[in-house]
Write a structure and sequence with these properties.
Strand content of chain B: 25-35%
Mean pLDDT of chain B: 92
Number of helices of chain A: 7
Distance between the termini of chain B: 35 Å
Low-confidence stretches of chain B: none
Structural class of chain A: alpha/beta
Strand content of chain A: 15-25%
Number of strands of chain B: 18
Shape of chain B: globular
Low-confidence stretches of chain A: none
Shape of chain A: globular
Helix content of chain B: 25-40%
Number of helices of chain B: 9
Strand order of the largest sheet of chain B: 7-6-1-10-11-12-15-16-17-18
Largest sheet of chain A: 3 strands, mixed
Largest sheet of chain B: 10 strands, mixed
Number of strands of chain A: 6
Order of helices and strands of chain B: EEEEEHEHEEEHEHEHEEEHEEEHHHE
Distance between the termini of chain A: 13 Å
Oligomer: heterodimer
């Protein structure tokens, strides 16, 4: 099976210059954990997720999780989010984004997702423009 | 690739009832048939296009549970989605079709959620990005509160600046600003008011006068309907009358008929058909949709049968 047979044809994305506040609004309302970052033509230039926002607000949080099982101070997270909410997405996105094209085999995407511990992989056309997304659940659904 | 824009989407609920009876202190009816689907004129065009295999992207402003339902519903039909999220809940529209009076439905449409400047700016940015990948834009429907009345003029202009064909289907006070931007085709929605460009559409001559006014503004084609079985297509040099050789349609559901018409036109234009033939096909698609319970007729043979009934005739000099 190919990527085009299982992908979700949704172009939900953010632009590099959008604020973290706008990103959080988008993720909350669209019920997504992360979205591709695109330029003005729709070319994928990055990927940004909830995890990136948490890392930005509490840089050591994920390291702390390995030694403690609780969030040390919720107010600290809130204060820090308030400080950075106006920052552009470009400051926090992953720039070396992994993408696939529509004609790739599903096994290749499954391999990418497992190896890189990804939830979602952007699908791009021959010009690098966003054409959809493959989610881990899309792959699992296709395997049933 | 086609882009449809629905600034005021809705989740449509259609009920077919036999009677509405007075029961105690309430007027009550039990529906003998119901239909619910994502709606709003642009989304309807997208759904039509997906049924005939035309790739398209649906854009618009959605929010809340209803917005998510709309998005999920149209994505399942193979339509590419790129919506802008708003804080408010997307509206529901209700149509009640009483047995024997299906051609005169009771429609209850809410005006839609208030749109903030933030949401509108976000939408405009997404719209401009989408213009990099489409060849035709369909702008359809009413405007929710908070959206400037000349928004269609701006959207048409941005598309025209990139040599992208635009088709506008809206009504009332939104027609004139759109016409002034010079879209490829405009189809005024005259369900609520027959006043177009300050002219009351009462006969063929008044329809042509209103159409010519829009042509003078730079619109290439104007399509004005008179009833479910007739259209007049007006361009700078030609006027065409399209008429079905049928006295009456067996109306089951006229919700979505105008959107089937627009969808049929767009479908035929993607097949490189001349505009007047595309409009003829659109009229057939609209008529076929009226005679089925669903919003769209998925049976191509029924559309073909309607097409064979429709004549296309150039109107004489007396109407020029």
């Amino acid at each position: 099976m190919k990527v085009k047979d299982i992908m979700t044809r949704d172009l939900t994305a953010v632009r590099e210059n959008q604020s973290l506040k706008a990103l959080i609004f988008l993720l909350e309302n669209s019920e997504l954990s992360g979205v591709p970052v695109i330029d003005e033509r729709g070319t994928v230039v990055g990927f940004v997720s909830e995890r990136d926002i948490i890392s930005a607000a509490l840089p050591n949080y994920f390291e702390m999780l390995r030694t403690a099982s609780y969030l040390p101070d919720i107010n600290q997270l809130s204060r820090r989010l308030e400080e950075i909410k106006g920052d552009p997405v470009s400051e926090y996105m992953s720039k070396d984004v992994i993408t696939v094209d529509e004609d790739e085999e599903d096994i290749h995407v499954a391999d990418l997702i497992i190896r890189n511990e990804l939830n979602r992989v952007p699908v791009v056309d021959e010009d690098g423009m966003l054409s959809g997304i493959v989610q881990r659940i899309d792959l699992l659904g296709a395997l049933l | 690739m086609i882009l449809t824009v629905t600034l005021n989407p809705a989740y449509d609920l259609i009920y077919w009832v036999k009677e509405i009876e007075q029961r105690g202190e309430t007027q009550l009816s039990r529906a003998y048939r119901t239909h619910s689907s994502a709606g709003g004129k642009g989304i309807n065009v997208s759904i039509y296009l997906s049924t005939v295999g035309v790739d398209n992207i649906a854009m618009g402003l959605i929010g809340g549970h209803t917005g998510r339902t709309i998005k999920r519903s149209i994505r399942e039909k193979g339509i590419i989605t790129n919506f802008t999220w708003i804080s408010e809940e997307t509206r529901n529209n209700v149509a009640i079709l009483k047995k024997g009076q299906q051609d005169n439905p009771i429609e209850v449409n809410s005006s839609g959620p208030e749109i903030s400047d933030r949401a509108l700016n976000q939408f405009m940015e997404q719209y401009e990005t989408m213009l990099h990948r489409v060849s035709c834009v369909v702008l359809s429907g009413s405007l929710p509160p908070g959206i400037p009345k000349d928004i269609y003029r701006k959207l048409v202009k941005k598309a025209k600046d990139r040599d992208i064909r635009t088709i506008v289907n809206t009504g009332g006070e939104h027609v004139a600003p759109a016409a002034k931007a010079g879209p490829f085709l405009i189809k005024p929605d005259i369900r609520e008011s027959k006043d177009v460009m300050g002219k009351e559409l009462t006969d063929s001559q008044s329809i042509i006068d209103a159409g010519k006014k829009m042509i003078d503004f730079g619109t290439k084609y104007v399509l004005l309907s008179h009833g479910l079985t007739g259209d007049i297509l007006i361009s700078k040099d030609e006027i065409w009358a399209l008429n079905a050789n049928r006295e009456e349609l067996t109306v089951k559901n006229r919700v979505g008929a105008g959107d089937s018409l627009v969808g049929g036109i767009v479908y035929q234009l993607t097949e490189d058909k001349p505009v007047r033939e595309a409009v003829r096909y659109g009229l057939a698609a609209g008529m076929a949709s009226v005679e089925v319970y669903e919003k769209f007729c998925r049976d191509a043979s029924l559309v073909q049968a309607q097409l064979e009934e429709i004549s296309l005739k150039e109107m004489g000099d007396e109407f020029q």
